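Lecture notes, unit on protein representations.

Consider one protein chain, 885 amino acids long.
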Amino acid sequence: MIAAVSLLILSVTGAKAQTPAYKNPSLPVEVRLKDLLGRMTVEEKIDQLRSDADPKVFLKALGTTGWGFIPLYGLRGTDPAAEAKQINEWQKIAQTSRLGIPVMPYEESLHGLIDKGHTSFPQAIALAATWDPALIHQVAKSIAAEDRSNGVRQVLSPVINVCRDARWGREEESYGEDPYLQSQIAVAFVSELEGAGVVTTPKHYIANVWDGGRDSNAVEISDRSLFDVYLPPFKAVFAAGSRSVMCSYNAMNGVPCACDPWLLTDVLRGSLGFKGYVVSDWGAASNVMDRFQVVKTPAECAAALVNAGMEAEHPTVYISRYLDEAVSKGLISMKTLDQAAGRILRVKFEIGLFENPFVDPDKAAAEAINPEHTAIARTAAERAMVLLKNDHNTLPLSADYKNIAVFGDFVNDPVPLGGYSGTGNVEHRKSILQGLKDHSPSVNFNFVSGCSIGNGVVLPVIPTSALQTPDGKPGLKAEFFNNQNLEGAPALTRTDSTVDFDWVDEAPSKGFQQTHYSIRWSGFITAPEAGDYDISGTSDDGMRIYVDGKMIVDDWSDHPATTVLGRVHLDAGVKAPIRIDYYQNTGEASARVGWKLSSQGDMVSQQAAQAASSADANLVFVGIKEGEGSDRAYLNLPGNQEDVIKAVAKSGKPTIVVIVAGGAVTMEGWVDQVPAILDAWYPGQEGADAIARVLCGDANPSGKLPFTFPKTIGQCPLYYNFEPSGRGYDYVNSSGSPLFAFGHGLSYTKFEYSKLAVTPHDRDSRAANPGLFWVTFDINNTGDREGTEVPQLYLYEETASVIRPLKALKGFQAVSLKPGESKVVTLALTADDLSLWNTSLQRELQPGTFDIMVGSSSDDIRLKGKLEVTQKMFGEKIPEHVAKK
């Protein structure tokens, strides 16, 4: 409207100046883009490819040449309104640049905007465990509203790496092991955000978890496996509207993913039909030169990236500072530069950023605490929980229980949120123990300490009397640094009486920053008696402890509050130098250092057994250490958690284990000793209340596993959709079958399946959708509780030109039923569902017989049928093929 009025005024006054075409929202995007590129200098185009969070780097360019992207992690400690105001300020500066090109502010929004005060929904893997795309639409719509109102116009999510190895530390961020489930959940997520004008960035492209479950290690993969398993979720989200994609750190088949033209151009823009722009994972651009060493100079590296099809280096200007040199030397052509800048600018036009760069801070504040979002977060948490085991109907908890022992040291802290999480709405995010007490105030929930997630138990805090600063004062010298690496001069120095801090949502000192800092405590420790001492470091995030010059605790990584144990010999009355290094990245922060004489032995299990024996029932909450950079060599519960479970189970009282984690755990030593196991995942800010409601029966669990739980670590990688073996599946000393299969999940009620039928659709619909069949069956709730079941449709092609998985998920639906109620479920099969990638890498529908399997999980098949596909029905091939190398 403003542009139209301006044109009218100019016409009436006879002025020669006209509104530039690129500023006219009524014109097609391609017309506007061509006009803008024609007006831009080389420097202006290059700056569109750049990203940085430091105003010292981008501020001048923002107001002159324009700037591409601003990551917002520097604002995570501010409230929504303040963040919105700052983003508005940057957009105002961008409007003063020569061409007034808006900047793209971006953030992490994996399961809610990571910034302070926003709704934290259940972790991504928990969302996948709902197996309910309709519910994911509600979650994503809420997330989009908070992102958009805050001024965030791009999010670095979702994570859609198909994970077939449970050792990967980032499995919690993913949607599991199956490409079909991944695709359905991801499409529901991205369609809502893109529809709200928030650019989604699915990641990591491609296959960045491989041998040993190790993140970003080199990948060797066949093209057919790539297209059959790992690429389908990406193709699905591109079709659903994702306008950006993040390349992965790793190399694939000998070529870094960040500079592979076959992967980033031929496949991405050819076979997958991607239209948006590619961004690098953090440091993936520099890896090409620094780690993989396939280029010699930074300018050559910049050219290799852009020429291959990467548009923007995230998050900082490192390799991209050499774009000018690469262009001036002719390493990047003007045509390629225009193409790269154009892909970014096209998206800025498409989402209306030129016309609507500003947001209302008051609306940002209101959306962050929207009660509808809170209600959806609680529903999602309840629906995500997976009842793994429930012998003798141990759950829900009996109303007769009046004294319940609760184990798990983290139950006293705010409910864990998982990786890439903010704080959530702090007023909603209570501890699990408080959630239980609030739900059942008449029950005595007796918390028993000592069940630790770390490599040792949380020990008594080292008292001030045992500590001395370098200048002889009681306590330790504390030096605070405005960075995470203890670099430079300390910004604050003080004396702390001991190390025992829990900064949930505050800075460690008045006037000091709330995130991205480090602390060093130093001085002397004096033992009252000689002996070997266990020293425990409990921290969120990293901690290292040195005694007498020897490092005895090394836990230098991002993670929730975790305890690590070290041991050192101390002589009575003799001062030994002690140094404690700590850093905090984002989210919560805590630091605690304890000790005890090793000769005192492990009293935790004895105390646990005693408390369990006097209780009516026992709840043992357990977790793991995982996340980015925290892949696991073992899948058993860390710390002393398994010892506590076994000690509690021996009491003979009902024992329920609740897993609060994002990955699988093995249970060899205790699974047969407990009657009930509930996987609560990282349930989001409303998780404490949701856990209480599920345990007490006010909510009926309906979640299904999005990945396989192995029995032993030696089975990994283990996944349900494996191909036929030339011999067998078992080991000489272990079964090849899982502990809990993909799709597994029990309920407090029972469901009966019947009346399977497979029929072609009517002729008219079949003409519009070649190959469409209907699979129908009945489900009846035969129990006495309302519940939700997720029936799953699996296929196996009996004869094909290439071997096929013994089961492949091709459909599912969440079905809610009242007691005694029955419903007819109808699932569709398309030509694509029945097709395969043949030996020529063509997508082909081959005649043959398909086994139809419908069940409650991949290994709990209730109904079986067959489908005969003839060439006459469908023709020979689907017109799709892989871009040639």
